[in-house]
Each structure stands twice: as C-alpha cells, then as structure tokens.
Amino acid sequence: MRSRSIKQVTPQNFGIVFLHEQFDEIYKQCNEDFKEMISYEQFNELARSFNSNVKNYELISETTLNYVHSYVWVDDQQEKAINVMMDSHNRIHGLLLKPFLSFPESDKKYTQNTYIMPLNEEWYVFWGGVNEFINYHYAYETQRYAYDLVIMKNGTTFKDSAMCNENYYAFNKEVLAPADGKVVQVIDHLTDNAPGEMNALQPAGNLIVIEHNNKEYSMVAHLKNKSSLVQIGDTVKQGDAIALCGNSGNSSEPHIHFQVMDSQDYMNCQSIRIRFPEGKEPIQGDFTK
User: Where are the beta strands (DSSP E) in 100-223?
Assistant: First the structure.
C-alpha cells in the first residue's frame, strides 16, 4: 500500500504514512541510536508484518516530558499499538510496536470511596491511565491503576544537576492522606537512592498504607527516609500530611507512587481504578492538584 512520497513525517500524518508503508521516510527521521539497534531491512520487515489486516490507525494520546513528545496510535480493531517519540523537530527518538493490552472488566470497576491525589500543590502525571503506553503499571494486576507523580517546571523535573535528590522539585514535598482512614502499614527506614540507582529488593521503598471504608486500601510509596508523620493504628483525615516525597525503593528519581487496592498487601492484591471528585480522572501528561 504505497502512496506518493511526503516531505516529512509529522505527528499529524504518522498513522497514514505508516499505514501506506512509507517506512523509508519514517526510518530517515529516526535518530542514530535507533538505527544502531535495528537496520532498515529489519524495520521494514517488522513494520510491514505489523500492518497486516489494519485498515487505519487512530491517535489516542500525546504527552510531553523533557522536551520529547510521545504519541500512541492504535489500529481499528484496538489490537495493535504504535508508540512514537519525537522531538520538536520531528526527529524520531523511539518507536515501539506491540499488542494493545485491554482489561475491560476491571476498567469498569471504580473505587466505592472518593479519593484526592495525595498532594497539596500542582504535580505532573508521569504514568497514569488505562493503557500501558501512558501507564506502564497497567499490564500488572496488582498496580494496574496506579499513578506515578512528579513536579514538572519548564519541561523538566529538576534544576541544575540531575545527580542530587535535593535538586528534584518533588523531593521533600508533603504527601497527604488521600481519604479518611486508619494507618495499617508503615515502612520508614529505607535509605533514599541516588538518582539513577534503584533498590529492586524493596520495590515500593518507604510507604504508608491506609485502610478506608468498603475494604479499600490506599498506598503512597517511594517516601523519604524517616519522614513518616504517622504510625500504625493512627486515624487520619483526608488531606492530613503523612510523610515527605523521597526516592526510596525501585525508583530512579524522587516521585510519588499512589494506588488504591483491595488488600493491604500490595504484592498480592487487585488494583482498583480510582474515583476522584467531580468525575475527574487525570492521565499521563496532565497536571493535577
């Protein structure tokens, strides 16, 4: 399925260019790192196979982080997805082809309680939403509807050097109770990682789990070492300060992981899609309070 050549592949025409199999035009705009990973011949073969039985592609999301724009295209059957990462000059920094995962049954189930984001100022949704391209947690039942939250200013999450936790806007910021409840788990002793390093043995790092009505449990994780303001058994009200944002656990930079689940055991639970006030539901790329 070929059509006449185009001058440049853009976010607006990418789906059509890919569907019309103008893979040489796409490959020309890929950066050198991408070309070192895969030859044009390999890319052409994979892309042509991926196009099989596809009638059209639809752009379903676009987000920006650190000056790179991420676009997700899905086929007409919602079975295949293409994730393209471009800079402001439409240079392609990454291109991912894979099946489009969907869990419609759990997507329909929201928490019975209404929660707020555990924040008291404007944060940025780094991961969040109901597909794995805007929320990498989505593929895993225990954290499917989780959020990763950072503070973004002028397109970046830090100032000066990226090698110091204190330079990240999120570090040391207050973390709040997302709803009324009772504290049932606190981990507070783990050391914060240096940025870029991660503690895979303690994936959630320092954390607080709160039990709420209707047997729902919220968890905030990656908290700062020895910053917890609550203990097991404490009763908290929605909006109470409970800890500080840190960089502990399986975390490469200071941020907050927030989820609601059906058990206090975050390793053996089902994540629940979160009901927010006024029907709002932030996704990747949104700023939220």
Answer: 110-114, 123-127, 147-150, 174-176, 181-187, 206-212, 216-223
User: pTM for this one?
Assistant: 0.88
> Which helix H or strand E contains 28, and what residues bound it?
helix 23-28
153-212 confidence digits (pLDDT tens): 988 899 999 999 999 999 999 999 999 999 999 999 999 999 999 999 999 999 999 999
Nearest to 77 by CA among 103, 57, 97, 60: 57
Residue 148 CB neighbour total at 10 angstroms: 22
What ranges make up the beta strands (E) of the chain?
Answer: 57-65, 68-75, 80-86, 92-99, 110-114, 123-127, 147-150, 174-176, 181-187, 206-212, 216-223, 235-236, 241-244, 256-261, 273-275, 287-288
Retrieve residue 210's tokens: 């709160």
| CA distances to 34, 185, 221, 237, 273 from 256, in Å | 31, 17, 6, 19, 17
Can you read off the two tokens belonging to residue 37?
């990973």
Compute the residue count for the chain: 289
Transcribe 165-188 into DSSP letters. GGGBTTTT-EEE-SSSEEEEEEE-
- Of 168, 169, 185, the C-alpha closest to 242 is 185
Q: pLDDT tens across 249-273, in order?
A: 999 999 999 999 999 999 999 999 9
Cβ neighbors of 212 (< 8 A, separation 6 or more) are 113, 179, 180, 181, 218
Nearest to 148 by CA among 264, 13, 252: 252
